[in-house]
TrEMBL record:
This is AB hydrolase-1 domain-containing protein. Residues 1-26 are annotated as: Disordered. Residues 9-18 have a biased composition (Pro residues). Residues 52-310 form the AB hydrolase-1 domain. It comes from Didymosphaeria variabile. Pfam families: Abhydrolase_1. It comes from the Eukaryota. InterPro entries: AB_hydrolase (IPR050471), AB_hydrolase_1 (IPR000073), AB_hydrolase_fold (IPR029058).
């Protein structure tokens, strides 16, 4: 009991469904790499080896369970969906891997599953990892790359927010990267420190503030996933601790290690909402310009989340047919 009464938070609207917190066999796979690291992955959608394969890269925080949201959709369009835990998330060993080394891990999973050609979809913080694959995976293996609401390099934020340079006296890149690493990342991590399933669900419910977000809290038989799936995903994301989240954020905040102009962008597509508060559309235009232009599809009224709700079939269909 605190000075002003009880500080105990109320329980969630309903207890998390144990069946949603349990992992199915196809969600609990791992591969041991030659260097001894483990890579966790899951398979969703079609089970036919003749159907096109799509590798989906999760956002941040996130893990391979993100594929639950598009399991039925990919079955309907006849596509195999493979999701991989990045280092330190889920079942994947935490290791100091650079952005340009990620394509090697993706190819290891593809080879393990006997997938000769595939396409990639990277959402939010998965966007930089998707672009790294577009740069380093040979065209004979990679059919196409789609980035949805992708996070851009720090340079894009600096170039599209000119006042930062003179305010910080020329130390902008250093200062912004430092702030992202030691201020922004910890603040993003803070809500997920308590990983008790019930309290975590309460946290997610409290974060739903807009009418559209609150709509997600209502039961909907037509929707494949609900808040309990999000709870399961976060529990799996942080099962090894916060290291994977911090590493993901650190990788996207520092120099990416390759030039976007060196990407063969013939089969790279960018989908972005013009109302995205997380990844401003100006940064997507910055990326598009360096890819040679004509790669960006700006969706009017789209935000970081609604773009998936309204355009998910188009996004995955395009990727499957690449």
């Amino acid at each position: 009991m605190g000075i002003f009464g009880s500080t105990e938070r109320p329980p969630p609207s309903s207890p998390p469904d144990p069946s949603k917190l349990a992992l199915r066999p196809e969600e609990n796979k791992s591969l041991t790499l030659p260097d001894g690291r483990s890579l966790g992955f899951a398979t969703y959608g079609s089970t036919s080896p003749s159907d096109p394969a799509i590798f989906l890269f999760h956002g941040m925080p996130g893990c391979r369970l993100v594929g639950r949201s598009w399991n039925k959709l990919c079955k309907d369009i006849g596509a195999r969906l493979i999701t991989i835990d990045r280092p330190g998330n889920g079942l994947s060993t935490l290791a100091n891997r650079s952005l340009q080394e990620w394509p090697e891990d993706v190819l290891s999973v593809a080879d393990h599953l006997n997938i000769s050609r595939f396409s990639i979809v990277g959402g939010s913080a998965g966007g930089p990892f998707a672009l790294a694959c577009a740069r380093f995976i040979p065209k004979e293996r990679l059919r196409g790359t789609t980035v949805v609401c992708g996070i851009a390099p720090i340079e894009a934020f600096l170039d599209t927010t000119p006042y930062l340079s003179w305010r910080l006296g020329g130390f902008t890149p250093w200062a912004v990267k430092l702030a992202a690493r030691y201020m922004i990342l910890p603040s993003l991590l803070s809500p997920y420190r308590d990983l008790d399933p019930s309290r975590l669900k309460r946290t997610l419910e409290d974060q739903c503030q807009t009418p559209e977000e609150k709509e997600f809290l209502k039961p909907d038989p037509s929707r494949e996933t609900d808040l309990d799936d999000a709870v399961a995903g976060l529990l799996e994301t942080f099962k090894q601790g916060k290291g994977g989240f911090i590493q993901d954020g650190s990788i996207t905040c520092r120099d990416w290690g390759f030039d976007l102009k060196d990407i063969d962008s013939e089969k790279v597509w960018l989908w972005h909402g013009d109302k995205d508060p997380v990844a401003p559309v100006a940064t997507a235009r910055w990326i598009d310009e360096r890819l040679g232009g004509g790669r960006l599809k700006v969706l009017e009224g789209g935000t970081h989340s609604t773009i998936w709700k309204h355009h998910e079939k188009d996004i995955f269909q395009q990727s499957a047919e690449a």
